[in-house]
Amino acid sequence: MPRKEITLQHIADELGLTIQTVSKALRGKPGMSEETRSKIIRLARKLGYMTKEQVDSLLADKIAPYPYVRRRFVLVQNDQSLNHNRLLLKGLHERFWEIGHTVEPVLLPPGLKDTEFGEWAETAGLPYAEGIFIAPRLSVYSLEDKLLKLPVPRILLNYPSPESKVDCVIWDVYEAMFQSVRHLSRMGHERILYVGDVKSQRGFILRWQAFVEAMKETGCGVSPEEHAIVRSASDDWLRQFEAAYRRMQPTAIICGIDEETVPVYHKLTAMGVRIPRDCSLIALLNEQTEHLPLVTRPMLLIREAGYRAADRMLWRIANPHLPYEEIRLRGDFYTGSTVLKLQK
């Protein structure tokens, strides 16, 4: 069944509902359970149905709502961040599937040299893609620069470096860090230990900057030497973390990087520190993991960033001469079981 022929009646018949109920769900009107609304929206997306408002919005941006050409896009990534790249790819897939396009992951070979980039890009078919999404945490910035110079539309899924001529879509870790510090402050915590790399990635630098500024806002100064921010090539950083913890004796910890949270939690457990009774914990997790209790955390909208980036790519293709923009997605804050309110 062609997508453009999908009507409210098709959705209503498949779910055994009335057209009126389906229409209200898609327009955000009350009068049904959230479960019913969710089923209607999921099926509408699956079938490729769009409301008149959605079609009008796409047409206003010069994007064809029912394209006749099937476009191929690529997500360039490395093997260091496959966990959040999986969520990015899911968001990209969801959006492009709705309108008939495809996106495929392309892995940067480990140790790829600048001099090898041109041959690799040609072999991977990057110059022939309709557009390229550049994942975060490419360890070699020079390779990111080369990707940005390819003569195809690009979307950077990261914070841009100065003078970058590219649209950027990213989940807002700056906001997330402020949420974290403010939550701990409201719960009576002042002695907060930061754990995480603060130098190797732009997003890591921004997390630390936000932590420092948010702590100043609460009236607490930050001395970098007190925090577990030094990194080495081995597992010494966990020993550095333990030393920092014993020096500061914090009432709360913020773990700024997803993959370091489980090691930090297990290290605390091995030290006999009970979370949250002895020390509260907030982590900037990409998603909840079964290896941890329900972690109090800011919600990082990674999958949603992928979905939004797909729309931005189509907009950029349709509007090549308009100014570049940086889009940051702000999430809610989730209260789990790892933060305890201090008794005055």
List the helices and strands and how they pair.
Layout: H1 8-15, H2 19-26, H3 34-47, H4 52-60, E1 72-77, H5 82-98, E2 102-107, H6 117-124, E3 131-134, H7 141-148, E4 154-156, E5 167-171, H8 173-186, E6 192-195, H9 202-217, H10 236-248, E7 252-255, H11 261-270, E8 280-283, E9 297-298, H12 302-318, E10 326-329, E11 333-334
Parallel strand pairs: 1-2, 1-3, 3-4, 4-5, 5-10, 6-7, 7-8
Antiparallel strand pairs: 9-11
Helix pairs in contact: 1-2, 5-12, 8-9
What does this protein look like?
It is built from twelve helices and eleven strands. Helix 7 (141-148) links the parallel strand 3 and strand 4 (154-156). The protein has three domains: 3-49, lambda repressor-like DNA-binding domains (434 Repressor (Amino-terminal Domain)), CATH 1.10.260.40; 72-171 and 301-331, 3-Layer(aba) Sandwich (Rossmann fold), CATH 3.40.50.2300; 173-300, Rossmann fold (3-Layer(aba) Sandwich), CATH 3.40.50. With 344 residues, it is an alpha/beta fold. The strands form three sheets. Strands 2-1-3-4-5-10 form a six-stranded parallel beta sheet, sandwiched between helices.
What is the overall number of helices? Answer: 12
What number is the mean pLDDT?
87
**Helical residue percent?**
40-55%
- Kindly report the spatial arrangement of strands forming the biggest sheet: 2-1-3-4-5-10
Query: What is the approximate shape?
Result: globular
Which residue ranges are poorly predicted, with pLDDT under 50 across at least 5 consecutive positions? none
Q: By helix and strand content, what is the structural category?
A: alpha/beta
Distance between the termini: 65 Å
Question: Could you tell me the strand content as a percent range?
Answer: 5-15%
The second-level CATH architecture of the largest domain is: 3-Layer(aba) Sandwich
